[in-house]
Amino acid sequence: MRAVIVLALVVGMLFTGTINTILNKLQDITCIANCSDPNPKHREYFEQPLWQTVNMFVGEALCLLVYYIAVTIEKRRDAQTGGGVAVVHPDDSGVADADDAMDEGSPLLSPTYARHVPQPMTGKRNLWLWLPTLCDMTATTLMNIGLIHVSASIYQMLRGSVVLFTGTLSVVFLGRRHPAYRWFALVTVFIGVAIVGLSSVVSPSSSPDDLVGADGTLTVTTAAKSDSSLLGVVLVVLAQTMTASQFVIEEKIMGHYHLPALKAVGLEGFFGLVTTSLLMPVLYFAFGRDTGNFFDLPVGFDQLVVSFPQVRNAGLGIIFSIAFFNWFGLSVTRSISATSRSTIDTCRTIFIWIISLSLGWESFRWLQVLGFVVLIYGTFLFNDVVPPPPFAFCQRPSIEEVLDEDEEMP
């Protein structure tokens, strides 16, 4: 029975994660003005990355609602039976650690064992989560802009570069010591990301102008979009530096405090909604008033909620998919391991790629395949999923060496 439950959790994680990226891309290629114009250059498409960021935070905030509902049910059952019910999973201790706090795409970092008993994260202490939320908000917005300019599969592959930045920042700010084979893995990840990015620039994906014909059907033509693709690649990779900062800050916080994992995700969603609610009016009056650009709030709201059912329905799908993705991800971590979660999440890229190809949203590129294989190998090597190559400098340290290094750490 346990195997069936774990399989259901894995399938749910893959499905919701894949659908989330596909729905975001579907919004980006939805025509919202001049759709019948015979000249594709005159057509306008949904380009509202700020509102897409709000979508994500709403989905994460729903986890907070689920958490409090679960707590209420747990208290009632506890009062009736004298026992407890876990909030995330029957085997869940109800405490978030560094791996639990990381949301989608987080790499597996070397385990850090607390040298003191973490304090409960209650009251004003919860505000510490506002710091990683700011990083998450910045990263998500940059990635949403980048997704406008690159295909969904390229976007998802480039997100794998987060392990490169997280591994590096963990050394600088967490005092982590990586053995030689992990540095080799990080270099491999860098090479893989470079190849994937190059494939997007050399053979750029079709833009919405190329995807949507005058009759509303999806078609694919070749267009010189190298400059746009390069911008998308740079933005998505740049966003990973912010995501890596988010993960490192979360691990630092979770080294001192503990709280239920589902509540951690929900609080970041809530803080994100509060932050965007405060910033978006300022950005509107400063940059977006009567411009129709990213910061024009009334135009974006009308496109997302009122006038275009496809955009609205995709937005609702994004909200619930990100909420369920986080829940499935936390449950997979508790049921199997964080390594398994990271490995399974990597497979999501393959499904996104297959769906994008089948829908005609992009064309097949061998250079992209090569980059993806190199990227996957580097990620799996860093996460100890595959053995290191048979080089003298890439051998894993013995248990005694690891214990000696732990004792030397302050």
Low-confidence stretches: 84-95, 98-115, 213-224, 402-410
DSSP strand count: 4
| Mean pLDDT value | 81
- End-to-end Cα distance: 44 Å
The biggest sheet amounts to:
2 strands, antiparallel
| Strands ordered across the widest β-sheet | 1-2
- The helix/strand class is mainly alpha
- What portion of residues is helical? 55-70%
Strand content: under 5%
Radius of gyration: 22 Å
Order of helices and strands: HEEHHEHHHHHHEHHHHHH
Number of helices: 15
Large-scale geometry? globular
Name the descriptors.
410 residues, two-stranded antiparallel sheet, two-stranded parallel ribbon, globular
SSE topology:
Elements: H1 2-28, E1 31-33, E2 44-45, H2 49-81, H3 98-101, E3 119-120, H4 130-149, H5 152-158, H6 162-174, H7 180-202, H8 208-211, H9 226-254, E4 257-258, H10 261-288, H11 297-306, H12 309-335, H13 338-358, H14 366-382, H15 399-408
Parallel strand pairs: 3-4
Antiparallel strand pairs: 1-2
Describe the 3D structure:
This protein has 15 helices and four strands. It has 410 residues and is an all-alpha fold. The strands form two sheets. It has a two-stranded antiparallel ribbon. Strands 3-4 form a two-stranded parallel ribbon. It starts with a helix and ends with a helix. The C terminus is likely disordered.
